[in-house]
Amino acid sequence: MKKIKTRDRILQTSLALFNSVGEPNVTTLLISDEMDISPGNLYYHFKSKGDIVEELFDQYELDMLDLLTVPEDADISLDQQGFFLHLLFETVARYRFLYQDLVNVLSRYDQLRVRFKRIQKKKTSAFRAICESFRRQGTLIIDQEELDSLCEQLTLTACYWSAFDTLSHLDDRESVDPGRGVYHMMHLVIPYLAPADREEARLMSRDYL
Amino acid sequence: MKKIKTRDRILQTSLALFNSVGEPNVTTLLISDEMDISPGNLYYHFKSKGDIVEELFDQYELDMLDLLTVPEDADISLDQQGFFLHLLFETVARYRFLYQDLVNVLSRYDQLRVRFKRIQKKKTSAFRAICESFRRQGTLIIDQEELDSLCEQLTLTACYWSAFDTLSHLDDRESVDPGRGVYHMMHLVIPYLAPADREEARLMSRDYL
DNA sequence: GTCTATATTGTGATAGAC
DNA sequence: GTCTATCACAATATAGAC
């Protein structure tokens, strides 16, 4: 049995606490308390609370950029899109503390601002790539203005679904349900699908409920 | 010339500061400083910072509930819907500090949670009333599942557009643009409109850009 | 109503022994 | 690497004079 290094346990515990009670409400004392180590020990591994946040953001950024590398000219199926959305929402859920206090967190750690914006842009691009693939295949019937609006809407929903969802059960912030997010994302796209594909997509979307 | 009472100036200044730098970043000292009064004076009028937040929330709640009283069975026109959305986004923009740190604020002032949820529900109901009016008039062609999804999506967008928009210009949080929000809301509805009404709605939506 | 202290507390962070 | 002790500081809030 491998022993998890304290440094990694700090990251792990912090992430869990951030997600469940919100990053601004988590003190370094709470983290060390939860782990049964001393505050001093925590500061031996990280020179500040901000450093913990930043390192978690590094992980998030890696996961996201990796996920968002969508091939520009491949033919993407509805199935593949569903799978992609599923992974996307899972990643968002893992780091949901970021999204739940997004404006706040980014206003305090301004090195993260530009990096987050870059990820947002990549998200929009990924959605656009998928939609354009659908359009090329005749699955999606949409003009330019609608496409722009749709992609921005998808980005907004991908960003804020998790926060919107926790509003409904602010009492226990542990439970998350990425599925309903995927369902909503699909229903943004469905009205623009060719009639032939619409029913299939609707059936598929229900699997995520 | 009428002199504004200190108590009201505190509310006014707090709201402005909350909106521009975020409620969690605003201290009672910053408020009193900005107004050129002493911290003690501030605490003569409000026994805590939370009381200021709550009183601002009272105003917000009044404004919102008033706005959301949508007649259940009247025939609503596209124009009227546009006007409604415009007012809605203006109100959200006035109290945008609430939305920008929503999870955080509601987690610290838990008396506000249930009240906010109630307002959210009323919003969804209002959207549903409008959509159902459209449907009765033959303007909107949509089945039940799609309608549910659409109304929830409208609620999400109404809630988070302002926060999503400030992400783009986190540098100056003063400027707000409710127009683009209205535009997006309309584009959520447009795909479900009867073909005859779609073009009119698209033209109308562009006025809000 | 308004001011000038000042008390209080919580949090981030460091020093130095083990 | 880990602990105990402690500092420094900022923010909320109060007391009492004017």
Automatic annotation (TrEMBL), chains A, B:
Source superkingdom: Bacteria
Swiss-Prot/TrEMBL keywords: DNA-binding
Parts of the chain that traverse the membrane: none
Listed Gene3D superfamilies: Tetracycline Repressor, domain 2 (1.10.357.10)
Binding region for DNA: 27-46
Domain HTH tetR-type, chain residue ranges per copy: 4-64
One Pfam family linked to the record: TetR
PROSITE patterns registered for this protein in UniProt: HTH_TETR_2 (PS50977)
Name of the protein this chain belongs to: TetR/AcrR family transcriptional regulator
Native source organism of the sequence: Marinobacter metalliresistant
